[in-house]
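Support case: user asked for a sample of complex input and structure output to validate their parser. Sending the pair below.
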Amino acid sequence: MTGAGAERWERLARAAAAAREGREEPLAQRELLRVEVAGSPYALPIERVREIVRLRAITAVPRVPALVLGVISLRGEIVQVLDLRQALGAEAEPPGRRARIVVLHGESGEVAGLLVDAVSEVLRVPESELRDAPGEPVPCVSAICTRGDRFVSLLDPDQVFELAAS
Amino acid sequence: MASRSRESARDKLQQEFISEAEEILERMRDDLSALAEQRAAGREAPPETVNRLFRSAHSLKGLSGMFGHAALSELAHHLEDVLDRLRMGRTTLGQGGLALLDESVALAAAGLEKVGRGESADAVAEPIADLVGRIAAWDAAPAAPGESTPLPPHWLRALTEYEESRLRESQRRGRALHVIELELEIASFEETLSELTGAIQEVGELISTLPSPGASSESRIRFALLAASELEAKELAARLELAPDAVHAAHAGAAAGAAESAAPPGAPGAPETGAPETPAPEADAATLKSLSETVRVDIKKLDELMNLVGDLAHERSALRALALRLGGERATARAAAELEKIQRGLDRKLQELQAGVLDVRMVPLGQVFDKLSRVVRRLRLDLGKDARLEIQGADTELDKLIVEQLVDPLMHLVRNAFDHAIEPAAERAARGKPAQGLIRIEATQRGHDVAISVADDGRGIHPEQVRARAVQRGLIAADATLSRKEAFALLFLPGFSTRSEVSETSGRGVGLDVVRANVSALGGLVAVDSTPGVGTSVTLTLPITLAIIQVLLVGVAGQRFAIPLGGIRETLLVTPGELERSGPRELLHLRGDALPVRRLAEEFALAAVDRARKQYAVVLGIGDARLALLVDRLEGQQDAVIKPVQGPVRSVRGVAGATELGDQNAVLVLDVSALVEDGTKRREGA
């Protein structure tokens, strides 16, 4: 079992044990990493986030979709970096000072970094407050929640990965 | 020095043999005990277990033969024969057979132990010869009726013909046989028995009721009931409201007392005919302790180690750079010299470490070849053709990862040769060839490469036919002129197949293109040569390892790339005037040859090309194909650990992977074979 799979398994097992003992299921509370992309807040499931790294030189790779910015070396591990701006349909822009690469692991153990404009905070959102996005389905967005007077879109990392692979 | 390394190589091989053989024997022991259990439970020997046993015996035979342990090989050979017949249903495994198999495994283990102690396995040749004799005798004996039933023979004799047929039917339906032992009051036993019979019939079938001795008092009588049921012994006991120990699975030794006395009064006390259940306990105990000092390691762990070595090499480079910098200044010159010395010592040790880790990854190709012999053996049966496999260079070593990836391509080539190339015996006779075909596999190490050729003495391939077919398929123009080599190269095009009919053996539409794809994924190449009527040979050339390679760093438009040194023939500076334009293409004349030219900047759309600029040409070569790849700068050689890349980046044509060169920056490693292939390809229809 991959590391990611094992973690998920453990989380589920804990949740199941909690449910059996009649405690409140911890799954009901989601922890999300809030990131900023093209002026809007987005959220990534924190259990998928492996690390957050400062921007570094990204080695461009030829013959790939524009959304694939290239690869970086993370302590010797080669990790592909995807531009979340482009994945969400915004124009590519040179990254600013607050730009970060959020390294995520996918459903099947693959690893990829997402370039975001900034990482802002960790949100704790009760599962019940997550709703389907209204209107037309937006690519990569699996749900939304409100924070203050703003909508935060919850992203599905696997959909972003798929977008890059197509 | 040379003889020492040869000796250690032999030691290493011997270790390899022992650990492999131990593993096989372990597997056989497991399977045999599984068979014994199945048998005890009254079930038929599961075919997959018998098949696995057969394969194990076969591997053991090949392995022992390869290492010159004739006695072991002989034993395994007989085992293989018996197991082969068993799995084909030509013989059945009785208790005697099982005991013989047990004994064989124990004896092989004893022989292996001798080898482990540095003695010859021939020390056990005598008991082996004796055992082989007994196996042959047992095997020759016709299977007795009911031989496959898990009951002692004298009990079987007590059954009526009908009961016996019910017994066989129950077994056929996969029901378990149980013996129910109980003691009843003589006064009321009939009532109790009929109640029990009714209850048993609800969950199975009562096959026989046999009175047995040993009742506790004159007024009581003991019975042994033979019942067949889908239920396990414990479940059955619960169902019948009996004590759990009153019901147990029937096996040859079960209820011997009951059976003995159950024999009709007229029958003489039947002598025990089953073989004793004593599979050489001494040898068994000895093999509990592992003989070899080999450890099986996950290749991933070796990859991690290799990465670590690579990282250390980077640190050393940094140290060296520092030493050079310090050396430039008067005040620190002496310290710099010291540092340089330390650095050099470190470098030597690092190289040893690297070589050591690489060495661990190496496995002999014999592992794959062994599988191929098995394939040929099966094909011989399936196709009714005869060909033998001749193997050379089984001890040639390659990176474990590469060896694993080679199984499929080699399997495919051997099947192809057997199926398509080797002619039927009559045709061979007509051509004056020996009736038995020959498929020869040979592995040789050439520098940093290993060449593996699969050659046959079959009908061969006509370049003209290949050409005609390629034209017919629209792969080339009708008037294309092709050299012999170019014609054979067409065989690797996807969808190309020289025989129109689909064959079971070689699969549908799966051809040499798949072999080539597999091999080039490993950084290797494939070449075919053939003489019509004489035979065909396919040669795979592979790097010894993928783990660490030497690369040349080149620069193009502000980006760096690494090119594996193995694919580079030479580098040279070229001025624009040295390039000849020929239509849309450019050529570089080099010592009388005109090489096709590709510019990396264009190939990867990195930057606009300034054709007036001087460029470096990196001459790439794969087999006979050469390509001049133009780059802006050459930045020196370096060791690189190629890291896997995930996602879309992995499938980029022309990129083999990425590496990190110590400065925290990822550098793409070029796929030389893809570049050469694309660069030298004729334009479609040209």
